[in-house]
Amino acid sequence: MDHNEKKALLKKLDWITTLIPFICIILLCLVFTLNPTGSADTLAAIRSFLGNELGSYYLIIGLFTFLCSLYIAFSKYGTIKLGNLEKPQYSNFKWGTMMFTAGLAADILFYSLCEWILYAGEPHITELGAMQDWASTYPLFHWGPIPWSFYMILAAAFGFMLHVKKRSKQKYSEACRPLLGKHVDGPFGKLIDLIAVFALLAGTATTFSLATPLLSMAFSRVTGLPESRFLTIAILVIICIVYTITVYFGMKGIAKLAASCTYLFFGLLLYVLIGGKEARYTIETGITAIGTLTQNFISLSTWTDALRTSSFPQNWTIFYWAYWMVWCVATPFFIGSISKGRTIKQTILGGYVFGISGTFTSFIILGNYSLALQTKGVLDVMGIYASTGNLYQTIIAILETLPIAKLGLVLLAITMIAFYATSFDALALVASTYSYKELPEDAEPDKHVKLFWSVLLMLFPIALIFSENSMTNLQTVSIIAAFPIGIIILLIVFSFFKDAKEYLNQKQEQR
């Protein structure tokens, strides 16, 4: 890059939304690393207030978003076409794989293997009935229609903003312009964008810090290297290299990685389904769980446990809604941008089909295999978790019951690295667009900007690995970041209604 190109690039960048989050993340990294106990106590106090006192806020936003997305799909707004292409930019398979792998895919693998274990000992599951029925139903609820609705409703709004209105600012604040008007160009707009970037970094940190230790344990078992923080960080660096290379090549690289990722994912599922010899139990338990979820969907979505008999929704449902809301900063932008040529109805319903079918398949096959080991007395999965208190060791013990276990661990590790890389491609791409004052619809950010974000997205997770991070600590980061994001999501949804209504009225007048 020559001197003039450098100068031109520096002029295009929005330094406030780039540097303030960068400085704050560096400071947070230092605090987490130097004072792990103090920072954990502060986080716990804030979580207690948000989750306990204001938990209903998250539940209401979740149910509203889901119902609203269905209304948009089946109303006049669903007929709006995103962009003027004759046929969609990507084939259904490419589009579906890019969307699924961009949305929490590595975490879906991690939680599929162990989520029922987290619920099985909860008093609330015993109150509801048999562990067999409810420990397999709740994971589908927490990774089902409501979480995906956060993505789909915003993907429709962002797709409309990018492809129909041709807005050149690819930011959260720009999506609020129909409601906020010129305030978007002032401090209020900057605040919205800063909150969005913080939330993006918080979601990244939570994702990486939760599942990476499983990768390092799998590597340790296969290679014989001792487990350590440095092995975990080495794996983070490998993932960083893979996704940085892909981001460097832009959308073509991302599409290829997403497709190969999906093949690996289905390979892993087939290995567990056939190799585990529990296919009948796995599928039947899954069908029952889908039925139980369908029958109890509204009561699960609105249960607040007002007497705090078990605090189950505060500990789990509210965390999950917050977790997905935090990821809403990047993934819906990515889905909106790759949905060019589709109608809003196709985008929302197609998103549900690909997103939920991928997620449910993963939870039904991987989760119910380990549930079979427990209920049939093959392996005391809950006993291992109770005695070690370590989810990662429990997951490794489950996988070691499969034939050619080391091969299975290698397949899991490669699939997770590929999933992480694709998720982070989407993140780095969207974060890079945030660094620009303006960026036309089809333009991609400069490679150097993408490189900067690729590295920055890794710093916070590494700091969290060095701090004594419990799952609670990580969940709290998401719950705090999601609180203001919830308000912004509502602003974007109502802005979309206002903008889309005007657009449809203009089209009607032109006829």
Automatic annotation (TrEMBL):
<feature type="transmembrane region" description="Helical">
    <location>
        <begin position="12"/>
        <end position="34"/>
    </location>
</feature>
<feature type="transmembrane region" description="Helical">
    <location>
        <begin position="318"/>
        <end position="336"/>
    </location>
</feature>
<keyword id="KW-1133">Transmembrane helix</keyword>
<feature type="transmembrane region" description="Helical">
    <location>
        <begin position="54"/>
        <end position="74"/>
    </location>
</feature>
<dbReference type="InterPro" id="IPR000060">
    <property type="entry name" value="BCCT_transptr"/>
</dbReference>
<keyword id="KW-0472">Membrane</keyword>
<feature type="transmembrane region" description="Helical">
    <location>
        <begin position="95"/>
        <end position="120"/>
    </location>
</feature>
<dbReference type="Pfam" id="PF02028">
    <property type="entry name" value="BCCT"/>
</dbReference>
<keyword id="KW-1003">Cell membrane</keyword>
<dbReference type="GO" id="GO:0005886">
    <property type="term" value="C:plasma membrane"/>
</dbReference>
<comment type="similarity">
    <text>Belongs to the BCCT transporter (TC 2.A.15) family.</text>
</comment>
<feature type="transmembrane region" description="Helical">
    <location>
        <begin position="140"/>
        <end position="162"/>
    </location>
</feature>
<feature type="transmembrane region" description="Helical">
    <location>
        <begin position="230"/>
        <end position="250"/>
    </location>
</feature>
<protein>
    <submittedName>
        <fullName>Choline/carnitine/betaine transporter</fullName>
    </submittedName>
</protein>
<feature type="transmembrane region" description="Helical">
    <location>
        <begin position="409"/>
        <end position="431"/>
    </location>
</feature>
<feature type="transmembrane region" description="Helical">
    <location>
        <begin position="257"/>
        <end position="274"/>
    </location>
</feature>
<dbReference type="GO" id="GO:0022857">
    <property type="term" value="F:transmembrane transporter activity"/>
</dbReference>
<feature type="transmembrane region" description="Helical">
    <location>
        <begin position="451"/>
        <end position="467"/>
    </location>
</feature>
<feature type="transmembrane region" description="Helical">
    <location>
        <begin position="348"/>
        <end position="371"/>
    </location>
</feature>
<keyword id="KW-0813">Transport</keyword>
<feature type="transmembrane region" description="Helical">
    <location>
        <begin position="191"/>
        <end position="210"/>
    </location>
</feature>
<keyword id="KW-0812">Transmembrane</keyword>
<feature type="transmembrane region" description="Helical">
    <location>
        <begin position="479"/>
        <end position="497"/>
    </location>
</feature>
<feature type="transmembrane region" description="Helical">
    <location>
        <begin position="383"/>
        <end position="402"/>
    </location>
</feature>
